[in-house]
Design goal:
Layout (H helix, E strand, L loop, with lengths): L1 H12 L8 H34 L4 H92 L3 H5 L2 E4 L2 E4 L2 E3 L9 H22 L6 E4 L6 E6 L2 E6 L15 H21 L8 E2 L2 E2 L2 E2 L7 H24 L6
Antiparallel strand pairs: 1-2, 2-3, 4-5, 5-6, 7-8, 8-9
C-alpha cells in the first residue's frame, strides 16, 4: 500500500505514470541526463555573462561618452525625421504636380488629335484646291493658246482668200480673168468681181477711208458701183450678162465704166493708208500698165490687169492684218 501511494504521488508530480518498466526507466534516465546537461551549460553561460558584467562595469567617463553619443544619435534621428517629413511633403507636392502634368498631357494629347484632324482636313482641302488650281491653270493655258491663235487669225484673210490658178488670179476660189485658150464662164467672173468689191468695201471701212465720188454696193454676182456726178447718181454695173466679143467697145461700155470706177476706188483706199505704195500703179483705166477695159485690152492684158487688181487688194488686206484691224 505504501508503494502504491508513493507511485501515485510520483505520477501526480510528473508526466509519467508510475510504476514504469526497466526499459522505460533507462529511456527516462537518458532523457533526464540530456536535460541536465543542457541546464548545466545554460548555468555556465549565465555565470560567464555575470562574471563579464562584473568585470566590465562602465566608468563615469564612458557613461558620459555614451550619453553624448546617445544625444548625438537622437539629434541625428530628429534631423533625419525632419528631413523625412520634408521629403514626404516634397513627394506630395511632386505627386500633385505630376497629376497636374498628367492632366496637361491629356489636354495636349486631345489638342494634338484635334490638330492632326484639322491638318488632315486642311491637307484634303489643299489637295482639292491644288487639283482645281492645276485644272484651272491647264484651262487658262489652253485658253491663252486659243486666244493667241485667234489673235493671229485674220477675219479678212479667212473671208477673202486670194491666190492664183495658173495664169488667173483667184479670190475665194473664183477666177478673175479670161483667155481665149482658157475661157472662164462669166457668172464665175461676175462672182469674183462681187467678192473683190466686197473686199474693197470691207478694207475701206476697216481703215476708215472715205471714198469720194463713189458708193460701193457689193451684191455678189450683181454688184454695182454708184458714181456721184454733179448731184446725180449713175449706177455702174460690175458684171456682164453675156459672152461679148473683145474689141467691141460699145458692147462693154457699162462694164468697163464699172471696172474703171473700181480702180479709182482702189486707188483712193491705197492712198488712204499713207506712206506705202501699192504693188502696181493705178493711172486712170490702167493698173501696172495694163488696161482694165474689155473693149480696149486684149484678153491676156485684161486678165493681167485683173490679176494686178487682186494683188493690190491682197496688199491692202496685209496692211489691215499688220495694223491689227482684222483680228478676231
Amino acid at each position: 500500500e505504501r508503494a502504491n501511494r508513493l507511485f501515485a504521488l510520483l505520477s501526480a508530480r510528473s508526466d509519467i505514470d508510475h510504476p514504469i518498466c526497466t526499459e522505460c526507466t533507462s529511456l527516462l534516465l537518458s532523457s533526464l541526463s540530456a536535460r541536465l546537461s543542457a541546464s548545466l551549460r545554460e548555468r555556465d553561460a549565465y555565470t560567464a555573462f555575470l562574471t563579464h558584467l562584473h568585470q566590465t562595469t562602465p566608468t563615469p567617463s564612458s557613461l558620459a561618452a555614451a550619453q553624448t553619443s546617445l544625444t548625438s544619435a537622437r539629434e541625428a534621428e530628429e534631423e533625419a525625421t525632419t528631413t523625412l517629413h520634408s521629403l514626404e511633403r516634397t513627394q506630395a507636392a511632386l505627386a500633385t504636380e505630376l497629376a497636374s502634368l498628367s492632366e496637361s498631357a491629356a489636354s495636349l494629347d486631345a489638342a494634338e488629335a484635334e490638330f492632326w484632324h484639322s491638318h488632315n482636313t486642311f491637307s484634303t482641302s489643299l489637295a482639292t484646291a491644288q487639283a482645281t488650281h492645276a485644272s484651272l491653270s491647264a484651262a487658262a493655258t489652253h485658253d491663252a493658246r486659243l486666244l493667241d491663235l485667234l489673235q493671229r487669225t485674220n477675219v479678212h484673210n479667212d473671208s477673202f482668200p486670194i491666190s492664183h490658178d495658173g495664169t488667173f488670179g483667184t479670190i475665194a476660189g473664183l477666177r478673175l480673168g479670161r483667155l481665149a485658150a482658157h475661157p472662164v464662164d462669166w457668172p464665175e467672173i461676175n462672182a469674183a468681181w462681187g467678192h473683190t468689191l466686197l473686199l474693197l468695201a470691207t478694207v475701206a471701212r476697216a481703215l476708215d477711208v472715205k471714198i469720194h465720188g463713189y458708193e460701193l454696193q457689193p451684191l455678189g454676182s450683181t454688184s454695182r458701183i454708184v458714181a456721184l456726178r454733179g448731184g446725180r447718181k449713175v449706177v455702174l454695173e460690175l458684171y456682164t450678162s453675156g459672152d461679148l466679143p473683145l474689141g467691141l467697145t460699145f458692147l462693154h461700155r457699162r462694164f468697163d465704166a464699172a471696172m474703171v470706177a473700181f480702180l479709182a476706188c482702189l486707188k483712193q483706199v491705197g492712198e488712204g493708208i499713207g506712206g506705202r505704195a501699192m504693188p502696181y500703179k493705178i493711172e486712170g483705166d490702167r493698173i501696172g500698165g495694163e488696161c482694165i477695159r474689155l473693149g480696149v485690152a486684149q484678153d491676156d492684158g485684161w486678165s493681167s490687169a485683173c490679176k494686178y487688181v487682186l494683188t493690190c487688194s491682197k496688199f491692202l488686206l496685209a496692211h489691215v492684218s499688220n495694223a491689227g484691224l482684222g483680228r478676231r
